[in-house]
What we know:
The protein has no helices and 57 strands. By secondary structure, the chain is mainly beta. Strands 39, 40, 41, 42, 43, 44, 45, 46, 47, 48, 49 and 50 form a 12-stranded mixed beta sheet that branches. Strands 13, 15, 16, 18, 19 and 20 form a 6-stranded mixed beta sheet that branches. β15 (162-167) and β16 form a beta hairpin. The N and C termini lie far apart (162 Å).
Amino acid sequence: EKAGSWSFSFTNDQSGNGVSNPGSYAFAINPATASKLVFTSSTGNLATGATRSITAEVRDAFDNVLTSDSSTVVTFSKSAGSGTVTGLTTATASGGIASLTVTAGTTGNITLLARSGSLTDDTSPFTIVANATTTTLGATAAIVAGQSVTFTATVTSGATGTVTFKDGLTTIGTATISGTTASITITSLTTVGTHSITATYNGDSSYGASTSSSVSQVVNQASTTVVVTSSSLTGVKGQTITFTATVTTTNPGSGSGTGTVTFKDGVTTLGTGTLNGSGVATFATANLTLASHTITVDYAGDTNYGASTSSSITQVINKAVSTASVSSSSTSVATNTAVTLTATITATAPGSGTPTGTVTFLDNGNSIGTATLSGGSATLNATLDAGTHTITVSFPTDANFLASTSGSITITVTAPATPTVVVPANGKSSTITPGAATSVAPVTLGAATGSAPGAAAIAAAVSIPAASLAIPATVVAAPTSAPSTGAFKAGGQAISVVITDNNGNAIHSFTTPLQITLTNVPTTFVPSTSDDNINWRAIPEGSTVNQATAQDWYTRSGTTITIFTRHLTSFAVAEPVVAATPLAISAKAIIKQLKHQLQVTLSTTTPTHVQFELLKADGKTVARKFHRWFTTVGSKTVTVSLWSVRKSSFPGATLKAIATSGSSTATVSKKVILEA
C-alpha cells in the first residue's frame, strides 16, 4: 500500500544442515491513481500583512503522494470566515505538490479550500490576527490649575487611527496618529494634586490596541487677581450702589475660582457675595453715609485658586435731592375759616429715605408759620384774610437732603355777606352776624292765630353759631298760620326760618345745631313734649300741609324757649291750651318702680296737659320734671323715666301733678315711696 522501493533479505537452508545461505529480493511499489488533495501548509495564526506558502499534495487513496504528477491543476479559494487574504488562485502540481503564496488581509477566522476536478477537496482553517503594538507616553513638568499642558503618545510604526488620553478613568482628549505620534493640548486640569495620565492606542485593521504606562502630572494652586467696580462712583444718600467683584486667574493658569468675596469699607465689612461661574460676585447697599468711602474686596480663595485682595476705589455719597409739595384742605373758604396746609417732602430718585427737620409755609413769599416734619409731612392750620393767597412751602435742608421749594397753590378767601332777619309782618328787620355772642333782639311776630283760649303772641330771635355755616347766609323769619289738625292745635305759633347761600339755594342741614330762641312765651304755653324734647312740625315754605312730627332738644327758662336743631328750620311749635279741670289721682299713685321707671296711675275728666314734678323730701326741690298731654279722658297709666334719679337721695319724695286747661290750673300732690 505504501508506494516506494522495497527489498527483502532472506536465508535459505537447502541442505538441512543448519547452514543458512543468505539472499535478497528488490522490487518497487508505485502509487495508485490520484484520489484526493491534502493541505500540508501551516494552520497557525497569520498576522495582517504577513505572507504564507499554501501547499496541497495530490494523493492516492492510500495517502501516497503522486510525485510523478506534474499536471494536476489545483484551485485555491476561501470557503468560510471573516478574515481575508490576497493571492488565492490556481497552481499546477509539481512532483505531486501544488503551492502558492498568500498575504493576510482583514483580521478574523478564515478557511481555505483546495479543489481539482474529481479529486476529493480539502480545507485548511487558520486565523488572521492584527500586529502587536506598544504605546508610550512622555512625561511633563508640574503645572498650575488651568495651565496649558501637552501630552504626546508614541505608537508602533505602521499603526494608524487614534489615541485616547485619560486622567484616571476620565477621558481628557483623543488625537489622531501622525507618523508614530499623537498629541493633545488641554487646560482642563484645574484640580490641585497628582493626576495619573495614560494613553491608549485604539488599534486599526492591522495593528492591535495597546495602553501606555501611566505618568504622574502634578497640578499646583493657581494665583488670582480681584478687581472691584461701582455702579456709580458718585452717589447720593439712599441711592442703591452695586459693587461688583471680578476674580481672574493669573497666567499661566486659567479657569474660575469659587467661593465668596468680602466687600469692605475701610476695615468695616459691608457684606459678602458668592462667585458665579464666571468669577463674578455683586453686593448692593443703600445705607452708605454721606462721606468718601474706601472700598476693597478680599477673595478668600479655594482649593485650586489662591486668595487675593483688590486695589481700592473711592465711593462718594452726597446729599440727595428733595422734592417739596404743598396742599390745602380747601382752596376756597370764607373769612375766619381755618384751612389745613400740608407740606410733603420726598426724596428724589435715585435717592431714598425720609427728610426730617422743619418746613416754612409762605403766603406770597412771607412766612405764615413753620412745622416739624413727621414721616416726611407737616401740617399748619392757618386762618387767612380775605383775598387771594399764593401758598408755597420751603424745606431748608437736613443732614441727608438738599433744600427745595414747592410749587404754589392758590387759596381764595371770601368775606361773607351780612345776613339779615326780615320780618314782613311789621316791617322790622335786624342785622345779625354768624357767631355773635348775643341773639338778635326779639321781634314781635304778630297776634296768635286760632281761637283757643290762652293763645298769645310769641316773639322769635335766631342766633347762628359761627361753625354752623361755611358760606354767607340770609335768615328770614315771618309768621305763618299753624296747622289746625293733629298734634298742633289751634293757637299754636308757626315760625318760618329759611337759610340760603349767596345763590339763593336753601341750606337744609348744619354741622352744628342752629339755635332758635322763642321769647315772651306765656307761662300758659306748654309745648307738647317727651321728656326734654320739644315737638315741632316741618312745614314746606308757603304750605300749611301737615308734615311728619320731629323732636329736638330744647331748654326753657321762664318765658324763653330755645330749640337746637340741625335740620331744615321751617317749623311750627305746638301750643295745646285747655280750660282748667281738676286732676284726680287714684289712691295708689305709685304702682311699682321697675328698671328705672316709675308707673303712675291717674284719671282725667277732660283733655288735659299735665306737668309732673318729682320733689325731694323738702317738698320744694324738683328732682325730675316731665310733661304729658292727654287728649282722652278716663283712667290711664304714665311711665316716668328715672335714669337720673337716685332713690336713696330723697326718701319721702312727693309726686306733684299740675293740670292745665286753658287759663285754669289744678295741682295735686301725693307722697310716694320709691320701691325696689
